[in-house]
Amino acid sequence: MAGRPEGGATDALPTAHKSAAGGMNRALRLIARRALASIPVLLIVVVLTFLLLETAAGDAVDAYLLSIGGGDASVAQSLRAAYGLDQSMPARLWLYLSSLARLDLGWSVAFDRPVRDLIVERLPNTLLLMGSATALSFGLGSALGILAGARPGSFRDRALSTVSLVLYAIPSFWLGLVLSIVFAVQLRWLPTSGIETIASGRTGLARAVDIAVHLALPVGTLALIYMALFLRVMRAGMAEVWGMDFVLFARSKGLSRMRIVLRHVARNALLPLVTMLGLQAAAMLGGSVVIESIFAIPGFGRLAQEAVSGRDTALLTGIIVTSAVLVIAVNLLVDIVYALLDPRVGATERGA
Amino acid sequence: MLTAIPTRRTFLQAGAALLASTALPTLARAQAASAGGRLIVAADSEPKNLNPAIVASNGVFFVASKVIEPLAEASFEGKDGLSPRLATAWEGSEDGLSVTFKLRAGVTWHDGKPFTSADVAFSALSVWKPLQNLGRIVFANLETVETPDAATAVFRFSKPTPLQLIRNALPVVSSVIPKHLYEGTDIAANPANVQLVGTGPFRFAEYKPGEYYRLTRNDAYWGKPQPNLDEIVFRVLPDRAGAGAALEAEEIQLAAFSAVPLTDLDRISRVPGIKVITKGYEALTYQLVVEINHRRKELADLKVRQAIAHAIDRKFVVDTIFLGYAAASTGPVPKNAPEFYDADVPTYDFDVAKANALLDEAGYAKDADGKRFSLKLRPAPYFNETRQFGDYLRQALAAVGIDAEIVNADSAAHQKAVYTDHDFDLAVAPPVFRGDPAISTTILVQSGIPAGVGFSNQGGYANAELDAVIAKAAETIDTARRTELYRQFQKLVAADLPLINVAEWGFITVARDSVLNVASNPRWAVSNWADTALQG
């Protein structure tokens, strides 16, 4: 019984397990090609970031002197000399690029610490926050998308689509604050902010639970907002599949509606969702300045904001390079998944 | 672990109080106040250099003042407005060339080494004078510091230096750091600038970037039995709405420096268990000032400046922008500095008709659109109130026919545009009055300051008479005569309007009722909190 309908689905969704070895080869070729192609991309990103911050008025010394309430002219001069800001723009750009080539991300003048340390310190928080939010919004969004797409045009479909679009339209700072007021201030179920309880000395599982409780609100906020994207894509994909011949065939076979929805329609609508997931994951890697600020999470977004307001070129460039590398890696991963799922994807790589 | 004990004790007390009925609430409170405990406070910034001997700024003092102490702290009732800390007495010589400090005996650093006059001499000569942002001004003429014995430090100056200035500056410029940790090192890069070592009531325990600073009780504090608290945690909360929410949820107990926005105060003051405190910032008065670029020919005309001063409704600014948490200014010295403040200066009532008449007199008639001339207005982005006042000023100027175009920029860009590039006609600035006009106030109007110096006269204003009064006051030893010169200074500024003083304000503290002894001195938020306690 189980073999027949499965076969129907396999025909419609062209997986490549017949040629798994070919898929791996294509994946390797992809990795090599992408690694090479990413070097000029990174170079452009670095130079543009540098120039962008260069055009902003004021430098790191202006920002620092402001934070301490001013200082006389000789202080400013000696600080500029100490930070190397008295050198010409091309000289500083060259200095930065050559240190980057040695995999040295440089020194943050706003924090007086190595950029690498700052990034290593903040990246896990952002990955945790954004990873959970992406996973939750993907899970929730696709599940609700299946519900909506099971009967396109039905009341349930319209209600879900409307609610998700309304959530998507809400500014994240507002939703974050409202959720915080309701669940943290009024009901006191969850903490208002922070990544974990301050100086609690928790370890192991207790600490993991503590972090999970602290992340519930920020992850929830982000997931509610991004859920709409996945819901809409899933639903649209399903609506399209419903009209196809194999669905009609499955129906005519007298399969249960549930089975048709899950095994045939939803499964075939998954491919665009993977694309969406890749794009979204990439977008989320930069962190969220707003959510990280509201919930006082020391992550990438906040670090980037502090780098800009402190005119800290090395730090900002370091953050952007790290994000860019992660985005390239995620895209590569998505492509590999595609190559394994769909033989047509890798085929074009061969000719290129 | 330390916190577990008071928690249990508190619990037992609560039980006992229940049994004893509610007839003795005051007794229970008095006992609970000495129970120690952890005070959690909102912090909105993380200074990269936390050493107050190098960086004398409020952001640094907020955390560091609990660990590293000055020679004397500001006080409501003490002589000359000071209460002794590491120094117990100070005396100036007749000629103004030396000041002798008697130092406190029996003080030890947090690492166990004794505190002596050598630490004071080292701090003064190697840090305050050459490196500190304000010490460079106050100790400009400091030549040597003699240490005849371990408890005496004699400051010798190359030029007469008023004791009044030194006294007023002590709380801000005289943070003493340990010589044995700094001598022979690169002071600016010393690890002790972050991992602070001082003599204060709290030790620096831990800093988690982006999350918190933790200070723990110094059991060997010279002011025993203080401190009352076991721990202070400064929790980093960058979002202002976040600080209010954390207070309401009882995750933090105190937010200083107006971390809770003015617009939220009315609501939050009605939440049971939360109090709003306006005291404790008297020695940290911020001033709302219109900076003027005198290179613009229209603004170089006194009549135009007078017209602008008449066009501003100070009462509206105080009531609507500051929601009443401010006072109208009369001149460059705030009312909170009664030692210097002079109310008898030229004033400018809100009078649109008079402003229009003055502008007509100055020869800037209205054109067909009712406009006289256009200006570029740059409001400083540092406070909500400076931005809002920028919007108000634009409207107020429009009412007298001056078309002001607002240019917004972020902090670094604003700083560069106004103080280095002079790319402004009017700017809104929030300078701080730091206890004595010579520290950071005269610089706002004095001529000859090079470009690039923030919070100084970058408007090209030059007035020989005013410069002479400022120079004379800087070397006048006699307190009464020096004070008189600063009264003259206020009159000259109010008459000639190199800048326009609009309002002056202190910050607001919002705390849970359980926090005791808040605002016990005029620099409370940036003082050592040895007497601060938690109830119950």
From TrEMBL, chain B:
Pfam families: SBP_bac_5. It is found in: Periplasm. Residues 82-429 form the Solute-binding protein family domain. It comes from the Bacteria. One of its GO terms (cellular component) is ATP-binding cassette (ABC) transporter complex. Keywords: Signal. GO terms for molecular function: peptide transmembrane transporter activity. Its main location: periplasm. Residues 1-28 form the signal peptide. PROSITE patterns: TAT. One of its GO terms (biological process) is peptide transport. PANTHER family: D,D-DIPEPTIDE-BINDING PERIPLASMIC PROTEIN DDPA-RELATED, PERIPLASMIC BINDING COMPONENT OF ABC TRANSPORTER. Belongs to the bacterial solute-binding protein 5 family. This is Peptide/nickel transport system substrate-binding protein. It comes from Shinella fusca.
